Amino acid sequence: MAFLLKYYTFSAKIRTLSEFQIRLSTNQQPPSNAEIITTLRYFQQTLIGFLKDFPATQTNYCEKFSSDAARWNLYPNLNYSALYYAIVNLLDVFPLITIQPQAIGEAILDTIKALMIFLERDSLEQLPLLLASQLGVFPRELDKQIVHLLADCVFPFAINEETYVKLSVPGVLMLVLQQTHDPSLHTWIVESAMNSSQGVYQDLLQVIAKGTCESRVAAANLLFHYWPFPNPQILHRKTIQYRVHAWRTIQCQSAGCSDKSPSVKRCYDPVICADVADTSPPIFLCRKCAEQVTGERKVVTQHIAQPMPASNATCQRVECQSQSRLAVTICCSHECTRGHNHVPMRLCMDCSTLVHEEGTIKHLQHQGSGVVWSTDDQWPTVESIVKLLRETTMFEGSEGEGKKPKWLRQLDGGTSMGKEIDKMADERRMLSRFGVWLMAGLCPPNESADPRAIGYIMQNVFEWFATTALLPSDSMGASLEQLKTDFVSDWINIGMRVHNQVFISSLCGECEEHDGRPVIDRIKEGLGRLLALMPYDVVSVETWSRVMPRWLEAIVNDCTEDNQPELKVLLCKIFEPDLCPLPFETAEVYGFMTDRIGGDDYDEMFNALQWLHQLSRLDITIPLPMILDNFNRCLQKLRSIEIPPLSENDLEEEEMSVHVVLVDTLVLQMKLNDAEKTMTPVLIDKLFECMQLLVSIPIRAVPHSCHDPELDGFADCQQCQQTAFVQQMVMNITQKVCPKREVAIITTVDEDAIYDDQTSDTPTAPGSSMLSPLTESGSKGTSPGTSAPSKPFPDNLQTQTMCVAQACEQEEEVEECEFVGILPCEEMEVAMAEAVTHDNVLETGQVVTSTTVHPSIKGQIVQTPQTPVQKQPPSDFWITSVGRFRFSFEQLPPQLKMIHSLLACLDVAVEPDVEFFVMSSIKYLCLHCEALSNARREHRGFLIWTQENQMVPKLWERLRSDYIQVGELATHLLLHAMTLPQGEEMFWKMVHRDFTSPQWNVRFDAVGKAYVLAQMIKTAPVKANKVVQTCLASVFYHFIASLHDPNPSVAQRAIIALRAMPSHTLKLICMCFESQFDHCIVDRPLIIHAITMMSILLPDQTTLTFDFFIQRFETLVLESQLSSQTEENIFVQDLMHTDPMSELYQRKVSKARTAIENAATARSIVRHLKQYDGMKHQLAHLPSDPGTRPTPFYSPQIFTYRHVWHDGDVVDGYQKPHYQHVSKF
What ranges does the record give for the region Disordered, renumbered to this chain (predicted)? Predict the structure, then answer.
């Protein structure tokens, strides 16, 4: 009956305790402190009463937990588990108790101490963590009581082979080390764990590896305190903020003790515990009370393990004679401690072996692990090292705070972000040193090391390098830097030598865990690690060449456009010559790219170019000479290697061509290197060489799709887009390096050739556009051999030419004389592309001849054989209209090669924009750099060949009216080409070929070309250049003559085009006609006819003026007198009766005499019409048919004209003629 009463009462109290929890959590009639304490005291006293009933011989069940069934018969079978969970529930709402929480906390702890002996194993195994978790919840005043309960009661009772409480020791250690700030409590819990269980060393490693940051600080210090390393720098390390303190035993718990001295013994007798201290076992007594209890009650007491000294790391055995007295083992067994005042004894390796080798009882020893490879401690140790190294990274979350002085960080710590001052900030900053020491001592990178573990450590060591580089340069920063020299550098060098592949993989980030972080963050960390290692001579050239390509490839392939600028600072520090900390030259820094660029693998080459392009986009300056050399090698190699075609995937991804990447890189680097100010002539030549190779190699892209009706033209044509971009960049580069000022378009006269004594005494006016190659030295049709210096040549190089320049009055004589004169003359090769021509005989290497004029026969050409010269038959002859020239494109100057390649690009250009960019580049080379003008002497052969085969024909074809920007450039370049050797001749050929073509569509296009030429031409270069005036007069005559073209479409287009021309263009046409009228006697009827047709079709425009006729009449009068001049009458008179001695008179006579003398050799439209078999409407008014009138072809109108003179109209003493236009139907 008494048992039932106890049972119901006990159960009722448990329900009451549970109700307290509900009332506190819901805040409905919360219980008072007295109610809670009274209920807890009831349970405590009830449980103590049950313990007092234990038999005196069964007190051993109070010392150690036992699952023996006999234990359950010693006390009533009540619901102890329900009481335990009721207390657990009460602990959940303990933070809600605001009044006298300390008293309630003490009552809870006393109840738990009494309940501990009655708990089952499952509940007992939860108890250590339950108590430790109350640290930080209970008032700080109870921290020592909680640790005492754990260290002196729970651990000794619960840790044995029958329970799994040992597994909770790391968690308890972590909670105690984290939540308590008294270092003595830390040593208390650690040493009590040593006295109760094995493997505390491993438990501390677990705390370091998996614990919190706060617990890791204490755990690392305690680990090195109890198990020191045999290194003076570690043994004599300077304490930062955390100092190990020895703990003190609890005061005597006897109620009658007046001294309250530290306890030295404990007693497990329940009766003694209840009588002396009114508590459950065990009770802790001082020496005096223990002796009193033992003497009076005759009970057995046990010695308590005393605290270990905090500053002793040597062997404590008195008889120790070892040379190395460093303590490596701690023995907590009674056999060893009883002779050492019950203090756990530190032993060196020799003493530990000597003391424990003969013992029959296994002692409770705690020893470090040593080298951990292939042991159970391997991964806990590796993880501990990694977490310690990462402490620096975690602490440096804010780089700005880390660089502040210590006093300022402490001053701002509590106010800047609303946080408390971190008292362990400096300790945490230096916590990585323990990781370095563990790594150097326990994880050497030898052959037996686990490659995975080495890679894991290496990765975090590299990260540690990067993080410590951001620390302030104070004493702590200097200490960490010293660690790199003393420990880490040697460890890395050994690891690099033994585990090279792991080392490379770690630097490349392959060992990283893909934890879902953005790719850009991983790349930034990897580059930061690499940068931090560079100053320590860890990164060799070989390592650099293997690591950096992988990072650059990741940047190009994995980073988005928005993220790449975030890498700018890091890559600048790595690659910029002024910032790069690598111990080798700039050429070696970029060596891995250089090797790939010049290699035979297209993919490797393209990747290297993309890397350079990416660096350039991030504003990283690369030496321009190195860039140009590499690009030249790359482009040369592209000519010989096989470029793989694009696949379907490439089309979807729109892969860029090598040309695009290369030219964009070049543009960016020129901007970064400030090329406009720093370019030297040698560097400019390399640049042109590079661009010439660039434009000469076909772009790797899909065929043109711009004409596909299903696509959007240029927008969907990859070939057009990439080609346009490349040519535009080439144009921009050319513009930057060429002179800003454009040269004037003038006709440059070659140096005078050596003439025979029998040549005409009449001087040739320099720059005269009407002189044929027979009379003008160095004119556009002249053989290269005629352009010679004024001084005589050596005998073997002498070239003599004789020109026949006679004024022929009859057309037949003019026609016979036009192409008589110079034949290809022979000249020995002096230079690569010397302007020389060769006879057919030269190819056999038998005879060299020179062309001379016989001294007695004027105009007769003879060839004088000279000494035979044996030569190898050349293979690089190029045929032109003036002879054969020998030159090689590979040996030409870069500017000429680039012009040749650009002109070749016009053949394959489909998009007008591409043509515009190409022609703009040619314009800069020709009109700003004067490349073709400067080639007139040394590379005359190439110049003539280019003029005849590329320059003039292609420019003439691009006088387009549908894309006027192309036509404008073509016009400008054509004017320049006319002034160069063979330019005038070739232009005449193109004009007469198209306008006299039997195909109407060719003539139709020719009319359009003439219209574009007239519209786009500028007046200034035409006024100052007779050659240009002559060429334009030819094309404008054909344009006017096309008004009578037999095809209505051609004629109609000519009429529309003529009427659409503005006034200034019509004036320019008239000016060219007047110039041709003055210089070519044979063409005068055609010119008059052309001007007349203009005046008829454009009656509102002033084309025929009195000034034109009055000036020409006077010239005709003088020419007539000079033609009929005899020896008796040598005086001629002009219409103005000018003084014969005046300068004006002499100028008029000289102009008339020149026109007569040049009549046979001047460029003539008439001759070309006959030569090219002009059409009927073009030959209507030739001088041989003076009475022929123009025949209508395109309309029923017949245009005629007549001159009507009105008497009385006198101007300057002469009558002024008036013209009337009469139309007949």
Answer: 756-794
Q: Are strands 302-303 and 265-267 parallel, antiparallel or unpaired?
A: antiparallel
With vertex at residue 183, the alpha carbon angle to CA 106 and CA 395, rounded to the nearest 5 degrees, is: 115
Higher pLDDT, 1172 or 846: 1172
Q: How far apart are CA 700 and CA 602, in angstroms?
A: 11
DSSP, res 640: T
Q: Of 205, 234, 263, which residue constitutes the final position of a domain? A: 234
Tokens 């002879």 found at: 883
Supply φ then ψ for residue 346, to 5 degrees: -85, 135
Of 164-168, 715-719, 813-817, 859-863, which has the strongest mean pLDDT?
164-168
Q: Which residue has the higher pLDDT, 1117 or 868?
A: 1117
Q: Distance between CA 101 and CA 94 in Å, rounded?
A: 8
Residue 680 has pLDDT above 50, yes or no: yes
Answer with the one of 170, 202, 234 that is the final residue of a domain: 234
Cα dihedral 1132, 1135, 1140, 1141, rounded to 10, equals: -150
CA atoms within 13 A on the CB side of 323: 0
Distance CA 224, CA 234 (A): 9
Rounded CA gap, 935 and 433, in Å? 72
Q: How many domains, the chain? A: 2
Model pLDDT, residue 831: 36
Query: What DSSP character marks residue 565?
Result: G
- Range in 42-51, 739-748, 1204-1213 the model is least confident about: 1204-1213
Tokens of 714: 């240029």
Task: Name residue 19's amino acid.
Answer: E
pLDDT at 747: 67
d(CA 222, CA 245): 10
Half-sphere exposure of 99 (CA within 13 A, CB side): 9
For helices 624-638 and 658-672, what crossing angle results, to 10°? Answer: 170
Q: Alpha helices, DSSP H only, in 1124-1179?
A: 1143-1157, 1165-1171
The confidence score (pLDDT) of residue 712 equals: 59
Bin 331: left if φ > 0, else alpha if -120 < ψ < 50, else beta. beta
Maximum pairwise Cα distance, the chain: 178
Note the pLDDT tens digit of each residue in 908-962: 887 888 999 999 999 999 999 999 888 888 888 888 998 999 999 999 999 988 8
Q: Mutual orientation of helices 270-277 and 33-52 as an angle, nearest 10°?
A: 140
Sign of CA dihedral 957, 960, 965, 970: positive
In the Cβ-directed half-sphere of 338, how many Cα atoms lie within 13 Å? Answer: 6
Give the distance from CA 688 to its chain's centroid.
Answer: 24
* Strand pairing class (365-367; 1210-1211): unpaired
Token pair recorded at residue 1184 = 């041989």
User: H-helix or E-strand containing 347?
Assistant: strand 345-347
- Is residue 855 predicted with pLDDT exceeding 50? no
Residue 627, class by beta-carbon neighbours within 10 Å (0-12 exposed, 13-18 middle, 19+ buried)? buried
Residue with tokens 């379907």: 648
Task: Kindly state whether residue 506 falls inside one of the protein's structural domains.
Answer: no
287: Cα separation from own chain's centroid: 78
What letter represents residue 953's amino acid?
P
Residue span of the structural domain in which 906 resides:
877-1102
pLDDT at 846 (0 to 100): 37
* Distance, CA of 245 to CA of 237 (rounded, Å): 16
Strand ranges (E), 979-1084: none
φ, ψ for residue 878, nearest 5 deg: -125, 125
* 958 part of a folded domain: yes
How far, rounded to the nearest angstrom, does the alpha carbon of residue 34 sit from its chain's CA centroid?
Answer: 75
- Contact between residue 147 and residue 185 where contact means Cβ atoms under 8 Å apart: yes
Does any domain span residue 968? yes
- Find out whether 402 and 348 touch, Cβ atoms under 8 Å: no
Q: Does 307 reside within a domain? A: no
* Residue whose token pair is 């448990």: 14
